[in-house]
Amino acid sequence: MSRIDALIAELCPEGVEFKLLGSCAAYSDTRVDASDLDGKNFIGVDNLLQNAAGKVDASYLPNTARLTAYEAGDILLGNIRPYLKKIWLANNKGGCSGDVLAIRISDAHRLMPEFLYRVLASDVFFAYNMQHAKGAKMPRGSKEAILKYRIPVPPLEIQREIVKVLDTFTELEAELEAELEARRRQYKYYRDALLAFSDQDIRWAAMAEVGEFFRGRRFTKADYVEDGVPCIHYGDIYTQYGTATEMTVSHVRADMASSLRFAQPGDLIIAGVGETVEDVGKAVAWLGHDEVAIHDDCFAFRHSLNPRFASYYFQSTVFHAEKNKFVARAKVKRLSAESLAKLTIPVPSPGEQARIVAILDKFDALVNDISIGLPAEIAARRRQYAYYRDRLLTFKEAA
């Protein structure tokens, strides 16, 4: 930091010049044939990641003939909500969909792509972009307003030093993420080994033998309120919950109570639909003190097992291998209660179930609990990065 402060004092003591983005960058106006693209160089908005996390290779190819071309050094920005915070600094050349903007620097003598990338990944720009987004159902960022965004343009030496500092934070986070991923693989290995029971002679039963399934009743996002009937939507099972929960993140109107269907404490709540075969069947054990309303694309499994044991089994490779045979593979993947009832589940003694749960709870906390261990350290590093990024990108403006 002292190095950057010294450079600012030396090179721009009266402040930093601010310029309209459109005066030093423009949108790509070249086109590329979709036939020349593959999963590695086609960028749809779905395979950009949030918060400058990069991208993943596309699992699909474009369905239009010609797309906008991008080059290495271009900044690709998601341009439809809820993807306005998705951004990537391209390291190859390819093509992007209409929901992605390719921003290319036109004044390389004054602006570094790596520096502009940090500016456009900031919360300040995101708030500006959200403010100017247009449209009702699926708002889009305003291309005109984006080019009118005022960006700081300090001397290149200062830009390089800021990028260097922020890269250090990013590299440290990447190392922690890699270590966490290794822990998760280890956790998955031991979880699958414990739940396969390959070296034990235990009873395996159809799920219909140890419990029964109840389907939820429909409610929509329009029914959500701050304080009402606790509820679990199938989408929340993917995004909000782990193995078990005692509280919900969502509530629906109290006057709907008579039309809802509820899971009881100890029930396993199972997502009956998903975008992929792997997603369908994700489950969370409901350990709250009272009943909870469930969506009609969820099933409550009322059973005689340890709830956390049943939930862990639903995460195992052996469960997914059997479950996948029963998934209806339409555009939206589905599992029926009849199919779930046919799946088998191990039924060890209550003591053995409790022993396995105790072991897996420790592993689960180490890789998923954001209050301890590596997840907590990664969260702290992200907060630290955001703090220094915002501080480093805040300049006194030259008169």
From TrEMBL:
Family label: Belongs to the type-I restriction system S methylase family.
UniProtKB keywords: DNA-binding, Endonuclease, Hydrolase, Nuclease, Restriction system
Gene Ontology molecular functions: endonuclease activity
Every Type I restriction modification DNA specificity domain range: 95-181, 208-378
PANTHER family: TYPE I RESTRICTION ENZYME ECOKI SPECIFICITY SUBUNIT, TYPE-1 RESTRICTION ENZYME ECOKI SPECIFICITY PROTEIN
Protein name: Restriction endonuclease subunit S
Keyword set includes Transmembrane: no
Domain of life, source organism: Bacteria
SUPFAM superfamilies: DNA methylase specificity domain
InterPro entries linked to this entry: Restrct_endonuc_typeI_TRD, Restrct_endonuc_typeI_TRD_sf, Type-I_RE_S_subunit
Membrane spanning stretches: none
